[in-house]
């Protein structure tokens, strides 16, 4: 049902039908809101109330269309999440609230209001600023702790930060995707079929060969996710391109050595002035060598005499040989040339000072770098991550006042202001020598135009493309791969990568990372074993579901995390596990009422690791239906069979999503 709340309607609390307790509320109107709603409705089977500020903008029409007659999905349109709207949405009885608006002040205000209305509420809020997010999380948790010890929790997430690792792994192919967690890191790497593998590595997926027209999706999966031992053993080079593997490293990866700052001489002084200065220095050097040869003095003394002559501080060489006198005259003329050169340097630096204070420009010698187009929220996050990895980067931005320009200046990353389709911008960004082009603006047309122009200039250029409209993206993906089969085209959707983390947080769990498997996805998450019939009372080996989930880490009560546990280890109610799962598999594991209990859902002892600051092939919102076979019961246990999880259907294409 839909509850239109406007200034002329009856009071919201009276006009809205009472909602059953335990539902979830999502406030927002963009692509992330839409994908999050679909995950909660179809994967987790939750009762959801949507609060849409503007039903006519963004994804408002698609969100409004999700309303159901039975009230399992309720939509409130035309109002921001103020007190009256939250009360109408049933905030007092709600289990969780997600605030996905791309507006930090509005999110902050709504979060504080919601915490006061329901101290037991599980809050999931979207905040871009790390400092603000940390302080807000601390404040909200303190407020919940002091409200009769209600035990409400707060999770602060950033869509751009969640998506950054996958975007970076798409661009930097020579480095593994790293997932920092408690007790070390996970690294994800591809290895060819038949290659010798390190002990302890876990196969995540069998990657199918690439073709120009074959595009996998939920209806037609191309790659085999979480393969069984039989599937892995039967893989051949003819049908499998590579194996995606997960490895645990007990120690964090060592960062490259410090990068020394360089002076932006190229931006301060024009090429003509720099050539004049170089020529004058060469002239002084020639006079020094000639003086040394003519007088027989040491090179150091000859250089000193020439400097004195250039500065007009030396005595006339009246008694010296003719050659020395001629050289002294030339030195005096060189000194006369220094003053105009110094004046030109000063005037030019004053004229260029404003630009240099904002931007650093690419070196002419830069090569094998990554070009980022668009310095919005996503582009800024990717730029920061690449700078941390010591990967050379050049940014291109139309707006000199964009969010990421100041960040680029602070990180000393070169920025070119202009449109990438302009030949001079293409030339200044040194795209002819870059390794990867990343089009990360929030506009499909701009991203596509940039990629097409760059591919016309360099057909072998690797591109990472950000597109939001799935139907449009699928068409573009096929066309680019058919036209340029020699190099893969990569594409990612920020909302697709971020939605699982937001959904899991609403269920009280944490998604550590999203692992892109080209057009499909795997998720790394932590959860408790208690009350989950798919895990409790089973061995690690019996709990593995090919195509669904796999336990890769185990933590007993009071024990450290143990990676790649023994398949014969029995899982108990006191254990916590790290699983790698498909979207449907994780949805089945976390679904309330099917494999969990109320006590376990209220449990607050979660692992609190922070996912790293990270899709390259085109992704779809759903990775396809899976039928998870009923596991063999462990001795002494009689768990319920696992239900089949039907595939969720997107209601409409996504027109455009914000950063």
UniProtKB/TrEMBL annotation:
Q: Which Gene3D superfamilies match?
A: NAD(P)-binding Rossmann-like Domain
Enumerate the Pfam families for this protein: TrkA_N
Going by the UniProt record, its keywords in alphabetical order are: Membrane, Transmembrane, Transmembrane helix
What positions does the domain RCK N-terminal occupy? Answer: 367-488
**Chain spans, region Disordered:** 1-20, 599-659
Pro residues composition bias: which ranges?
628-644
Q: Where are the transmembrane segments?
A: 276-294, 326-347
Q: What is this protein called?
A: NAD-binding protein
């Amino acid at each position: 049902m839909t509850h239109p709340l406007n200034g002329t309607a009856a009071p919201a609390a009276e006009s809205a039908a009472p909602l059953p307790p335990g539902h979830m509320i999502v406030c927002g109107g963009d692509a992330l809101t839409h994908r999050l709603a679909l995950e909660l409705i179809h994967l987790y089977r939750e009762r959801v109330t949507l609060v849409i500020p503007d039903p006519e903008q963004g994804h408002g029409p698609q969100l409004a269309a999700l309303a159901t007659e039975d009230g399992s999905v309720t939509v409130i349109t035309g109002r921001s999440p103020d007190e009256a709207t939250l009360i109408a949405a049933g905030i007092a009885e709600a289990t969780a609230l997600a605030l996905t608006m791309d507006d930090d002040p509005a999110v902050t205000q709504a979060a504080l209001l919601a915490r006061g209305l329901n101290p037991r509420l599980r809050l999931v809020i979207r905040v871009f600023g790390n400092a603000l997010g940390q302080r807000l999380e601390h404040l909200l948790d303190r407020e919940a702790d002091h409200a009769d010890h209600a035990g409400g929790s707060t999770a602060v997430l950033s869509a751009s930060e969640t998506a950054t690792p996958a975007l970076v792994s798409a661009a930097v192919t020579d480095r593994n995707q790293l997932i920092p967690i408690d007790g070390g890191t996970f690294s994800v790497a591809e290895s060819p079929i038949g290659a010798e593998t390190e002990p302890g590595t876990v196969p995540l997926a069998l990657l199918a060969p690439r073709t120009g027209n074959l595009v996998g999706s939920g209806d037609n999966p191309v790659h085999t996710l979480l393969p069984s031992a039989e599937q892995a053993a039967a893989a051949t080079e003819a049908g499998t391109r590579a194996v995606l593997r997960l490895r645990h490293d007990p120690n964090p990866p060592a960062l490259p050595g410090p990068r020394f700052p360089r002076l932006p001489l190229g931006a301060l002084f024009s090429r003509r002035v720099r050539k004049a200065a170089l020529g004058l220095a060469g002239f002084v050097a020639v006079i020094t060598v000639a003086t040394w040869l003519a007088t027989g003095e040491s090179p150091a003394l000859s250089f000193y005499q020439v400097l004195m002559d250039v500065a007009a501080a030396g005595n006339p060489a009246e008694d010296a040989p003719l050659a020395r006198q001629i050289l002294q005259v030339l030195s005096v003329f060189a000194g006369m040339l220094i003053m105009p050169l110094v004046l030109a340097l000063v005037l030019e630096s004053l004229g260029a000072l404003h630009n240099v204070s904002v931007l650093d420009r690419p070196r002419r010698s830069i090569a094998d770098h990554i070009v980022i187009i668009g310095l919005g929220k996503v582009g800024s996050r990717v730029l920061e991550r690449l700078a941390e990895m010591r990967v050379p980067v050049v940014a291109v931005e139309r707006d000199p006042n964009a969010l990421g320009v100041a960040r680029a200046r602070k990180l000393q990353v070169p920025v070119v202001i202009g449109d990438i389709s302009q030949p001079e911008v293409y030339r200044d960004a040194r795209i002819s020598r870059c390794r990867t082009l990343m089009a990360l603006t929030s506009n499909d047309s701009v991203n596509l135009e940039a990629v097409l122009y760059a591919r016309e200039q360099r057909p072998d250029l690797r591109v990472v493309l950000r597109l939001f409209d799935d139907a449009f993206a699928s068409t573009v993906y096929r066309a680019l791969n058919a036209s340029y089969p020699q190099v893969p085209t990569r594409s990612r959707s920020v909302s697709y990568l971020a939605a699982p983390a937001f959904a899991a947080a609403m269920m009280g769990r944490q998604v550590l990372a999203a692992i892109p498997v080209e057009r499909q996805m795997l998720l790394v998450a932590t959860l408790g074993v208690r009350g989950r019939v798919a895990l409790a009372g089973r061995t690690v080996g019996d709990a593995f579901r090919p195509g669904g989930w796999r336990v890769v880490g185990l933590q007993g009560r009071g024990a450290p995390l143990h990676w790649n546990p023994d398949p014969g280890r029995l899982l108990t109610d006191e254990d916590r596990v790290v699983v790698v799962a498909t979207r449907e598999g994780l949805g089945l594991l976390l679904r309330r009422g099917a494999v969990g209990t109320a006590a376990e859902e209220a449990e607050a002892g979660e692992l609190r690791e922070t996912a790293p600051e990270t899709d390259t092939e085109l992704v779809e919102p759903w990775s396809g239906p899976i039928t998870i076979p009923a596991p063999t019961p462990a001795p002494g246990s009689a768990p319920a069979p696992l239900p089949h999880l039907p595939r969720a259907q997107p209601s409409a294409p996504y027109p455009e999503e914000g950063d």
